[in-house]
């Protein structure tokens, strides 16, 4: 798919992997709308890349619908949608303080899985109205899972379940949206230098990097952005989840 002046939205685009995706799409020529809850940081990134910031809670249908409307008014119907918004609090099913509260599990599912589907459905509706290219393609949707979808660690019950749902949604939605000329792919990142990771002590970062086969360093947000770029460019890459993890296979803890 072409990038030039194509309206793109990136949830969680104010920082981390989302920022990497937003910068990559803007560099390729897209008109980028950053959807996030972090207003100050989101506006800063948007100004830097020549895009716009839109306040959005992806877990809310009303908030997401309003955000899509604002982005559409500014740039036109969405042609590329990248979902990076997510949370990852750790909690054991049976911990020292008792059983995991059901509300804790539900919140992660609500943001990571339902939030991803929320944007997918709204973006697909706009993409279906766009003029197709020579291949009949109207849009590209890229979701974010995690290696935790495959090798969830102790304390990641909610996070692993939410990301496993995103993986399962990939081929299903790609098949269903094929008739509209919309491709759907997912990136499952491993260990990346995100704001959460950068806040950890250096010795913790080094110990995590040491678990990576090669290269033995944390991934960079711009490298996540490179994969987003390639998923948009390659017209036959569809229904696929790609691990971006330096050959990492997570240990139990």
How would you explain this protein's 3D organization?
The protein has helices at 16-27, 39-49, 61-75, 102-127, 157-177, 195-198, 202-209, 221-233; strands at residues 7-11, 31-36, 52-55, 80-83, 94-95, 98-99, 139-144, 182-189, 241-244. It is an alpha/beta fold and 253 residues long. Helix 1 links the parallel strand 1 (7-11) and strand 2. Helix 1 crosses helix 8 (221-233), helix 3 runs parallel beside helix 4 (102-127) and helix 4 runs parallel beside helix 5 (157-177). The mean pLDDT is 95.
Strand count, sense and closure of the main sheet?
7 strands, parallel
Q: What share of the residues does DSSP label as strand, in percent?
A: 15-25%
How many domains comprise the coordinates?
1
The radius of gyration computed from the alpha-carbon positions, rounded to a whole number of angstroms, is 18 Å
CATH architecture: 3-Layer(aba) Sandwich
The global form is globular
CATH fold field value: Rossmann fold
Amount of helix:
40-55%
Q: Which structural class best describes the helix and strand composition? A: alpha/beta
**Average predicted confidence as pLDDT:** 95
State the order of secondary-structure elements, H for helix, E for strand: EHEHEHEEEHEHEHHHE
Task: Find the CATH superfamily.
Answer: NAD(P)-binding Rossmann-like Domain
